[in-house]
Each structure stands twice: as structure tokens, then as C-alpha cells.
Specification:
By secondary structure, the protein is an alpha/beta fold. The chain has a domain of about 150 residues: Collagenase (Catalytic Domain) (3-Layer(aba) Sandwich). About 35% of the residues lie in helices and about 15% in strands. It contains 7 helices and 10 strands. It is globular. The N terminus is likely disordered. InterPro entries: DUF3152 (IPR022603).
Length: about 300
């Protein structure tokens, strides 16, 4: 709010006309200088607010890369809901018994250094229409030798499938190497690193004290190595292969990055929507990895 300038004090004696004009000129110049100072201050404040807003939108600092990124990460190049926030962790299904699954997977790290190895090269542009959204793929350093190639291949295969998000022709997707402009990164992180990254965004990935779920933060899709290696009880009990669960978790978390929210099971025995939290149980639905079924977007009722 601007403060009105107080009029100059009146003198007891009237000044000569010439002196009055001189005084008026001085006052006009003083007012002009004051307006310039106010305009400069407003510009500075607006610039600072813009920088803070951009930082909040990006969701805080990104995990430290393995090498300096040469270019500034691009902002999304197609409209997304401005108010989209990472979805909160849902309450676990009573059927979830993570300890039974943990016995299946063999030895792998529960934690890591929180630094990353990025996939090299780039994919073809996946899809036929829509704005191109570019992404990187990375694995935590202590699992990258074993997992990065498989993880990268699975991401390319899943997002390039005609049943994935590209089927809607709203987006095309392309994997790019570190150092290129990008809109988001897909990370494969150990359980403890997942807990820390997701916790920084206000999400608790733990179940019974163990880092259990994956998550999405603005610009960051974080896949939990525990789930990547072990799947979940409803998939295991239903003898649904690990490959299918991996497709599901990639499509689910990338769906959040594309602005999609959680959905519920539409009915007993029906396929689970890909935006259903299948990691917490199928809730009477059958496993499904894809957002498009028979060429149509397949959804369930919204979940608050």
C-alpha cells in the first residue's frame, strides 16, 4: 500500500510567487525520486518472491548427481495442475505382510550413499503426439552396477508401451542422459535413501518400521529398491510375476508426475486401475500395470 505524501507545511507568511514556484519544482523532483525508489523496491521484492515460488514448486533440492549437470533442468513444457502435491502415504492394507516377502529376494543393500549413477545415451521419442517430456534415469551408486541397466531397460519398455501414458497422446516421453535438459528424473533408491528423500517431501514410506513404498516428489520419481526386488504380498500370493509389478510401480509413480491422483478399486474381480495403490493391496481387484486397457483410459473412483 502506498503512503500518501504529506503536503509541505504552510508558513506563517506567504512566500513570493517566484519562491513558491521554485519550492514547487523541488517538491515535484523529490516526489519523482521517491516514486523511482518505490518502483525499484517493488521490483526487487517481486523478483525475490518469484525465486522463492519457483524453489517451492520444484520441491526442494534434488539428490546430488554423480557429475555436475551442464544445463539448467527445464521446467515442464506442458500444462500440469499447479497445485499438484505429492500424494500422502496411504494407510496399509491389513493383508500386507512385508516380512513374508522379504525372505524371497536374497541379499541386497538396505541403504546407500545417496549419490547416483545416471543412464547414458537417450531413448527414441516414445509416443506419437503431445508435448515431449524428457526424463533421466539413475540408480543409487551402491546398486548401479547390478541394477542400472535392467532398471533403465524396464523404464524404456514400460513407458514406451502402447498401453502406457503415451496412449493418451497428451504426452510424448524421452529418456535423456545427465547433462541434458529434462523435466523429471526416475531414481532407483535403496530403502533408507527412499525414506529420506520421500520424508523430505512430507511422506512416510515406512511400514512396521521398514521403508516399504515408493513415492513421487515434484520432478522426482523415487522407486524403492525393496519393492523393485521383492514386489508385494498380493502379487506374490497371486503368483503374479515381478515383471508385472515393476511395470505397475513405474506407471503409477510416473502417473503422479503427469498430474494423476489416486483411484480406488472399481469392483470385486475387476482390474485395478494403475493409479490404485496396489502396493498396499489389491482390495478385491486383479493386478493391472497399465493406464490404458483395450485402447481406453481405465480408471477407478477418486480417492481423497
Amino acid at each position: 500500500m502506498r503512503t500518501a505524501l504529506a503536503p509541505p507545511p504552510r508558513t506563517e507568511r506567504e512566500a513570493p510567487v517566484r519562491s513558491s514556484r521554485v519550492e514547487s519544482g523541488r517538491l515535484s523532483r523529490a516526489r519523482a525520486r521517491q516514486r523511482r525508489r518505490r518502483a525499484t523496491a517493488v521490483c526487487v521484492l517481486l523478483g525475490a518472491a518469484l525465486l522463492v515460488g519457483v524453489d517451492l514448486l520444484r520441491g526442494g533440492p534434488e539428490p546430488v548427481p554423480t557429475k555436475q549437470v551442464a544445463s539448467t533442468p527445464a521446467v515442464t513444457d506442458s500444462p500440469e495442475p499447479a497445485a499438484e502435491q505429492s500424494p500422502p502415504a496411504a494407510q496399509p492394507s491389513p493383508s500386507v505382510q512385508p516380512e513374508a516377502v522379504y525372505q524371497m529376494a536374497g541379499e541386497f543393500p538396505a541403504s546407500g550413499p545417496g549419490t547416483w549413477t545416471y543412464a547414458s545415451g537417450q531413448s527414441e521419442v516414445l509416443g506419437t503426439a503431445g508435448a515431449v517430456k524428457r526424463f533421466r534415469v539413475a540408480a543409487e551408486k551402491n546398486v548401479a552396477d547390478e541394477e542400472l541397466d535392467v532398471f533403465t531397460s524396464m523404464v524404456d519398455e514400460t513407458l514406451g508401451d502402447s498401453r502406457s501414458w503415451i496412449a493418451g497422446e497428451q504426452y510424448r516421453l524421452q529418456r535423456v542422459p545427465s547433462g541434458s535438459a529434462y523435466q523429471f528424473t526416475i531414481y532407483l533408491a535403496t530403502g533408507e535413501t527412499t525414506r529420506k528423500l520421500c520424508g523430505a517431501g512430507g511422506m512416510d514410506t515406512r511400514l512396521d518400521g521398514v521403508s516399504y513404498t515408493s513415492c513421487r516428489l515434484p520432478g522426482r520419481v523415487v522407486i524403492n529398491l525393496n519393492r523393485w526386488r521383492m514386489s508385494v504380498p498380493d502379487y506374490v500370493d497371486g503368483k503374479i510375476d515381478l515383471h508385472t509389478y515393476r511395470q505397475y510401480v513405474i506407471n503409477h509413480e510416473v502417473g503422479h508426475e503427469l498430474g494423476r491422483f489416486h483411484e480406488g478399486c472399481p469392483g470385486q474381480g475387476k482390474p485395478a486401475p494403475v493409479m490404485q495403490q496396489q502396493t498396499y493391496g489389491l482390495k478385491g481387484c486383479t493386478a493391472n500395470s497399465w493406464p490404458y486397457v483395450d485402447g481406453k483410459r481405465y480408471t477407478g473412483p477418486p480417492v481423497a
